[in-house]
Amino acid sequence: MSDFRLEVFYTVARRLSFTKAAAALFITQPAVTKHINELEQQYDNKLFERKGNKIQLTAAGELLLSHTEALFDVYRNIDFDMNALVHKKEGILYLGASTTVSQYIIAPILAGFRKKFKAIEIRLINGNTEQIERALLEKEIQLGIIEGRSKHQEISYTEFIRDEIVLVCGKDHPLARKSELSKESILESSFVMREQGSGTLEVIDYALKEIGMRVADLKVEIQLGSTESIKSYLMHSHCLAFISVHALTDELQRGTLRIIDVAGLNIERYFYFIQLHGKPDGLSEVFLRHAQLAHNLK
Predict the structure, then answer these.
(1) Which residues form the HTH lysR-type domain (predicted)?
(2) Domains of the chain with CATH codes
(3) Inter-residue long-range contacts of 149-158, CB under 8 Å, 24+ positions, other chains counted
């Protein structure tokens, strides 16, 4: 329903690259340039300007982007509402999931959703919590599922699944047979941690403060960008790590990783759905309701 030239403009504006926009839209770079030139002629304004090897939006480009985002939101809601009149649910849902969610939680939910709503296409992006929140604020996605909870005023947070983060080590670690660790033992140990911006790291830091510690007090040997790489590192080192129990099912069954209790430390959290405040779009609500029902039926 939307003007394809606006879709081209939106894609360039989000990626700030004619080459990446062409690849995303499956058209040639000269075709992208042609559509942008036509828009600039139509509005008698430059939409992009070059800064060395990069491009950036002009003031006119920023204004057009704002209107384009609002227009695309309206188009999506029109499509959903009109299809709902004939009991059809179809369209494209842009969904974001933070690292732990995308690796261990969302796959069966997506599979069940696609079986039930074959006409709804899902385009999923992954990243840490900070990146998914940014994608929502920049309207690259309509709905996100994150670990941890920030305090963005523009974002609405809805509880989804309860999670527990536990202290873990490899089966050959000297502390693997300990039933409980003291605060002092933790401070003497080496850790492998997630990268900055991780929702897990945010939650861990908050919980440690409750027992008079901080993440900054820990001896961090290395920071890694995924839970899978952290688990593998634990199996080949004498480090400890804080990991979601959702990510440990296979390793605990095989006995390759062990959970260690920490005196006075309990790290619980929720995974959250995130949406921008205001009227939620129809596709997001359909997916949210499906995910909640699928989890409750487990």
Answers:
(1) 1-58
(2) 1-67 (1.10.10.10), 163-269 (3.40.190.290)
(3) 149/199, 149/269, 149/270, 149/272, 150/199, 150/202, 154/276, 154/277, 155/274, 155/275, 155/276, 155/277, 156/274, 156/275, 156/276, 156/277, 157/272, 157/273, 157/274, 158/272, 158/273, 158/274, 158/275, 158/288
pTM for the model stands at: 0.67
Rounded distance, CA 129 to CA 8, Å?
A: 28
- Which residue's entry shows tokens 């700030």? 16
| Residue listed under structure tokens 């202290």 | 167
Per DSSP, 246 falls in state: G
Place of tokens 């939650």: 203
Q: Tell me how far CA of residue 195 lies from CA of 131, 134, 217, 227, in angstroms.
A: 12, 16, 16, 10
Cβ burial 237-246 (10 Å sphere, 16+ → b, else e): bebbbbbbeb
Q: What is the pLDDT along the chain (298 residues), one digit of tens a residue?
A: 458 999 999 999 989 999 999 998 889 999 999 999 999 999 999 999 988 888 999 999 999 999 998 888 788 767 766 766 655 678 889 999 998 899 899 999 999 999 888 889 999 999 888 899 999 998 899 999 998 766 788 899 998 988 899 999 999 999 988 878 888 888 999 999 987 767 778 888 888 998 899 889 999 999 998 889 999 999 999 999 999 999 998 999 999 999 999 888 888 888 999 999 876 778 898 899 889 887 765 5
Residue 58 burial class via C-beta count within 10 angstroms: exposed 0-12, middle 13-18, buried 19 and up: middle
N residues, the chain? 298
Query: Which 8-state DSSP code applies to residue 50?
Result: E
Helix (H) or strand (E) holding 232: helix 227-235
CA 137 to chain centre: 12
